[in-house]
Structure formats: structure tokens, C-alpha cells
Fold these 2 entries.
Entry 1:
Amino acid sequence: MRIDLGEVENAVSSLGHKAVVLFPAEGLSAGNITAVVAFGRPDGTGNLEILPEPEPDSAVVTQLLALRRHISYLIPPYMHPTVWVPTDSLPMLASAKVSRLAVKNFVTRELQEDWLNSWRRMLNTIDLENHIIQPEEAMAIELADIVDKLIGTGDGHRRPEGGKPYHDIILSRAGIDSIKTIQLMRLLSERYNITPTVGKILGSEMSIRDLARYVETLQSHPDGREHVTTQAIDLIEEYRGLSTILQDHFTPKECRPSKLPDAISTVLTTGSAGYLGIEILHQLLKRKETSNIITLIRAPSMDKALNKLVSAAECMGWSLTPYLSKIEIWLGDLSEPNLGLSTAHWERLHGNCSSHEVIDAIIHVGAIVDWTKSYHQLKAVNVISTLTLLNASTHSLLRTGLRPRFIQISGGRKPASSFASSSWETEGLQLARALSAPGTLGYTQTKFLSDLLVCKWASLHGGTQDARARVVMPGFIVGGGPNAVANMDDVLWRLVSTNVGLGMYSSEVNNKWVYLASSAVVARKVLHCIFSAPSSACHSTVDERETMAIPVSDGLSETAFWSLISRSGYPLTGTPHDTWLAAVEAAVEAKGVKHPLYPVLHFVKRGVGLGGDLPAGDGDGCEDEEMKAEVERDVVANLAYMRRMGFLPAVATP
Ligand SMILES: NC(=O)c1ccc[n+]([C@@H]2O[C@H](COP(=O)([O-])OP(=O)(O)OC[C@H]3O[C@@H](n4cnc5c(N)ncnc54)[C@H](OP(=O)(O)O)[C@@H]3O)[C@@H](O)[C@H]2O)c1
């Protein structure tokens, strides 16, 4: 995981204590996130001569424990300091800033082992004692009991009469996954007559005690619902911080004219073993001009990485074998520093290689596609990996004078021809404000921020018009061609299966557009962006010279979509939304976890991902009969696949 020490320091200072956060390479706390915090003098200024002794009930300990608790709401656990150095005050410079150098010298050279160890021991003891839920914590005990039944025993978290006390476990780490979260929500609603918010539990670091406080808060509201604003992510702040890092990688040399490579012979892709990535890889492999396709794969060994690609291709009905000479696998992990690459690969990514090895284009497909995870859980893979690839491209440009093309696959929001080259940042910041609202999916937030960074990078590299950095925005991605393979995890097909079972669909869909294209169509669009000359017109009606984001607007009106499903052997009746939703809820209730909509029902109820919730199409492609015919053929082929897999019932006349 990538750790931003500035972010940690902001969190540690957020209660007003002067603090410095370091990651020392030497000294007693080497290799640990170390927080030096002044708890003594109100203004925090002074020197490091007075160090408090660890006395359990002292004011310093109380403040330190409060601070640790507070930051757990602000930053994810992997960013929490593991060494705490409480002090009375911190040394200051004449500029009234903390002298970081003096603090660093103190931490690396002057910290006394005995003193630090006694603080560690005392904090560990307090943690252990605090971890046990006490008998007087009635609500927490009740909830621990519920959670215990839900996850089963076996991890030391046992009923009190079994001899062991309950611990204040973190739900997500104790096996409460998305399905169990929904079960837990239902149990809580029934037992306490409250309406908990799923996002509060899913993708969070909520513990049993936190849950008890949450339930008690909801009980105190007349309608049992949440009215407090949850901690929101400020996407504007996030963007400003990350775009500064992009900018920092530029140097005055950057101003020299750069050019796009004449030929695209070496392409780096991420996410190639995924549903879309494997199709992009297939189309790349078939192109004569690309002689080398580097693909970053997350796997423990080269053999396993190759197997991953081979079986992904086989699943889609083609063989990798004829193309093996063109493929170069790089083992890596998008969530790790330097993308988990070897030094040699990292250097090559930065253009530190011979001219024939320079990477001409990057197609960034890899991402965690998960609606249930929070912004922080997705940030490393969905945002920071983009930043890292863009920075590497900047370095490559500085070394070679060649500007790699960069195509990013967007997601999580309606495709739109957004980010006009003249006003992308204003538009982007407006959207950032809207998407910062609590309740917005972390997936949507991270993918959006990543897109905005690509726009920033393009604008830094001589403007958005010719930089050939583009964000391709697909809607739903389905299987393509007569042998289409449907992604049955997709909410689209979960809804189709639900509606087929009910024989109805929500008729509040009249002017909606279902953005839907096969992976083959999306891949074609991506490759078009990579290989077309900068001035040539895009295949869509949107002029890609004018906008940074290229929407894949293919699809059908939602009415046409459900009518097609009806004509394919699954007769459906348009039904008022409330009646339809009640029927859906009853069906999910009856089948429980086995129902395809079970894990996403709460999103569907909120309108997320429901076809009817998608805003009307912007008209692009609506008149394109050829496109519609292709979409219809693909939908029918996906239905056939799902029938073969038993996901949909057989029909008499398909
Ligand atoms: N599916 C859709 O309907 C849809 C719609 C719009 C946009 N998109 C976008 O299209 C892209 C591809 O989506 P998809 O449906 O093809 O998703 P997918 O099948 O889940 O593929 C995601 C890929 O990203 C890789 N990945 C995830 N975490 C990684 C990590 N830490 N290190 C290295 N690789 C990692 C995965 O590798 P592993 O095999 O190692 O997990 C996988 O190959 C995503 O950017 C998504 O946001 C998808």
C-alpha cells in the first residue's frame, strides 16, 4: 500500500497538537511510521528535552488514546503510526514552523530505548484491556452475539459462556463480507427497529463497539434512520494534492518540444486478464504494427501469470499460443509502490532503456471493480496506480523526447462527452464537488479522480487537444459476437435475471438510455484512440479533439432493452416502480443469499446501477441503426450464454 506521510501528519495534527510524522530509515523506529506529537504546552513550542513518562491515567495518555481513536476515522489502518513518541513540545524554527530536521535527528539518534519500550508496553496493555468487551457494555455484547452467529466461531471470538470473552473486532476483518453485511442489516432492522445505512458498515473499519454506538444513535432518532452526515471524501482536496505531485515531476526541460512516436510498436497494458482487458489484448495482438505488448499481471510467478492470461483467453474462446512471441509479462501489483515492478521494468517504464525498448503507449485498464469498497480501500489501485503511470510517462518523455500515448478506461458513472479541452478543469472540479457527497460509491469516486489526473497530465503536456491522452468511458460491458460470454456478476444481468423471474420490469424507464456495448466494441474504441492520427475524426459523433473523455454511447433505450428481453422468450410487463420494487424485495427476501440481486439490492433501491436511473442519452448514436442492430445481437447472444450456464431459464422459442 502507498503511504502518504503528509496525509498521516494531517490526520495526526487534526486535533490541534503539533506533530511530525516520519518514516525513519535508521534508529529505534526505523521502518515504522513514527508520530512525534506535542501534548504538553498549549502552543506546542519548545524543545524535546521534556518527555512524559508513561503513566496510565495521565493527561498525556488520555490525549494520545483520544488521538489514536480520532485518526481511525480519518485514515485507513495501514497508514496509522506504529510508533508514537509523545513529547511536551517540539523545536521550532524562526519561521514559526516545527524544525523537522531537529525532530528527525532526535528520533534517529537520541530516542532512549527504555523510555520508548515502556511507552510501547503500556499502550499494548491498554489495547489488550480495551479490546475485551466488558459485561456492562450490554449493547456491544448483544451485537457481538449476533455477529458471532453470523460469522460462526473459530477465530477466538467466542460466546462468553464458552469461556472466552468477546473482543472488539473489526467487522470487515472478521469475515463480514457484503452478503453478511446485508444479513446483519436485516437482523438489526428487525431487532432494533432501525434503518442502518449499508455503506456505514461495508468497506469501513467499524468495530463491534462502533456498531453498538451506531445502533444506539439510530435508536435515538424518531424514525430510526441516519441523519448525521457521514465523513465525506473531499475529492477537490484529493485532486489538488495529487495533481501537485504530477506537476512536481515536470522540470523546465519539459518545455522543449516533444513529439508523439511515429509508430506504436510497444504497448503496455494493465488489467489484461480481466473481462475487458483480455479483449483489448486480443485486438492488440492481432495488429501488425505492434510487435511487443507488455502486460502487467498480478501473480506470484511468471508461470502463474501466463496461465492467468491463457485461461482468460480460453474463456473468451481464443488461444494465446500463436501470439506468445509478442507478449512480455511483467509481474506487478497496482497497489504496491513502484507498481510492484522489478527495478529493470521500473527503469524501462521511465524510458531508461534503449530506443527500441521505449514504451509508445499505455492502456490502463486494471482497476478494482467493486461497489462495496470505500474510497480509501480502492485508492491505491484505482487512483495511485494512474498517478504512478503518468509520472513514469513524464520521465520517459524527458529522457526520450517521445510522449507516450495514454488511454485510461473510466467507469462508475454515466458515459458522457465530458472534459471539453477548453474547460475540463472547471467542469472536473464541479463534478468533484458533486461526487464528494456522502453516499457516493468509492468506486465512482476513485475512477473519476483517476480520469481527472489523466486530463491534468494531458494539459501539462501541451494541452488536451493533441496529447493523445484520452479517457474512454464505457457503460455496461457485455460479451460480443455469436459466442459472447456474459459477465454474470454484472448488475445488468443480475437485474435481467430478477425481472425474468418476476415477469416484470419497472416502467419508469421511458426516456432512459442503457449504455451498453460489447467488450469488442469498447476495445475497438480504445485502439482507435491509440492508433489514429491525432487529427483524424473519431468514429463517434463526438469530436475527440475537443473532449478528453470519449464516451462509448452505444446502447438502447431502456424500453427497447426490456422489449428485446421480452421478445427473446422472457415476456415482461412494465409495472409501476413501487410495485416492481416491492416484488423484487419480496423475491430477494424469499431466496436470501441465493438471489442474484441479494448483494446489490441496497444499491438498486438507491437507484444505483438500475437502468431506469441512468439519465437520458445525449442523442449520440441513437439514430445509428447499425449500432442498435449490433447491440441487439450482442444482448441476444449474452442471453443465450446465460441460458447455457443455467443463469436464465430455458425458453421454448428463443
Ligand atoms: N465491467 C464493466 O461493465 C465496466 C464498465 C465500465 C468501466 N469498466 C472499467 O473497465 C476496466 C476493466 O473492467 P473489467 O470489467 O474488465 O474488470 P475485471 O474483470 O475485474 O478486471 C480488472 C483487472 O484489473 C486487475 N487488477 C485489479 N487489481 C489489481 C492489482 N492490485 N494489481 C494488478 N492488477 C490488478 C485484475 O487483475 P487480477 O486478475 O489479478 O484480479 C483484472 O485483470 C476497469 O477499469 C473498469 O473500471 C468496466
Entry 2:
Amino acid sequence: MAAQPRHIFAWRLLVFAAALTPIGWWSYHVAVGAAGPEPGRYLLLNLGQGALVLLLCTLSLTPLTKLTRWKGFSVIRRQLGLWTFSYASLHLLSYLLFILGLNWTALGEDLQKRPYIIVGALALLILLALAVTSNRYAMRKLGKRWKSLHKWVYAALCLVLLHFLWVVRADLAEWSGYAAVGLGLMLLRLPAVAQRLPRFGGRPKRARA
Ligand code: HEM
């Protein structure tokens, strides 16, 4: 396997530390009793928002690669995508543990009362499919189908935004901010818009994963 340039390794380390820090911070809050009256719900909501922020960051890396021509962004994209999936899985785990208390009868009732959970679960299933096929082996095996499969990330984003909208309902201020960024990133992927993007950074810069 080709050696990894040092700056790519440094970027990876930075992304690792940046993605892990909020989890440490929220756990610390829970441990010292600073997470409010419902620490389980505190973790659930923060992990949900964290997963959405990471999903938007992941999606912003393709336009950034096009703008700057720095291929290193595509190396970090896979790492951020895996963090998105990890946050979303921890979000599900905190729901099962702290909200349901692993009571499977309550799960059936909750799914009827709060259908947005099914929407969230569909988004998580897509993220799972993308996470397990994000390696080089799957890329080789799937060939051209890999790109089509990974376009499903936009379906996941729409489902997550719907899931979030259903939770917040009337309080749209925060949701609108996330939705605007998501919409902007989707527009940037349209060929008509992507072709008009300015290119900085002269020669394409290569970086190996
Ligand atoms: C099986 C999968 C999922 C389940 C069971 C689930 C469950 C929940 C629940 C119960 C809430 C509302 C908490 C409340 O207000 O009481 C919630 C909120 C939320 N979830 Fe999920 N979710 C799932 C998947 C996802 C995924 C995949 C994402 C993002 C990638 C996500 C992002 C969010 C966000 C942003 C909120 C709102 C947080 C806030 O109001 O601050 N969820 N989820």
C-alpha cells in the first residue's frame, strides 16, 4: 500500500480528535450532573444533531474538492462519513437504552405514536449501506454501481431533515438553518451549477489514501 503523505495523516488525526471531542464533552456533562433533568434525552438530542452536522460536513467535501482541487478532502470524506454513521448509531442506542429502557413492547407503541422514528430508521439503514460499502474492496466489486449507491446519501439527508422537522414541528428556526445548508449542498451537485463553480488552486493536487 502506498505511504500516506504526512499532512494527510495530520488531517486524519485532526478529524478524529474533532469528531471524538463532543462525545467526551457530553459524557463529562452527564457524569458531573450538568446535563439537565434528563441526561439520556440530552445525549439522544446532541448525538442526533451531531450526526446531522457530520452528514452536512461530509457532503460539503465534494464541492470543496472541486473548488480547491485538493484531493485530500476526498480522503477525509470517508472518515467523516463513518463518523456520521457512528453518531447516528449512538443516537439509536441512546434511544433504546435511555428512552425505551430496552422495553421492546414500548417500542411498538412508540412507533405508532411517533412515526418519525421510522423515518430516522430508514435514514440510518441508508447510512449503514454506505458505511459498509465505503472501502476499496466494495468500490472495486461494485464498479459503476458504487457511485449510484452512494448518491443515496441525498435521500438519507432528506429523510433526516424530515425526521428532525417532525420532532421540532413549530420551532422552525434551527431546522431552517440545517435545511438551507442541506439544500445549498444539493444544488451545488447539480451539473449546471457544478460546472459554473470557480476553480482555485491551479494544478490538481494529489493525495493518496
Ligand atoms: C433508528 C433510527 C433513529 C431513531 C430511533 C431516532 C430517534 C429519535 C428520537 C426519539 C428523537 C426525538 C427526541 C425527543 O424530542 O424526544 C430524535 C431526534 C432527532 N434525531 Fe433521530 N432517530 C433515528 C435516526 C436518526 C438519524 C439517522 C439522524 C441523523 C443522521 C437523526 C437525527 C436526529 C435529530 C437532528 C433530532 C432532533 C434533535 C433536536 O431536537 O435537538 N436521527 N431521534
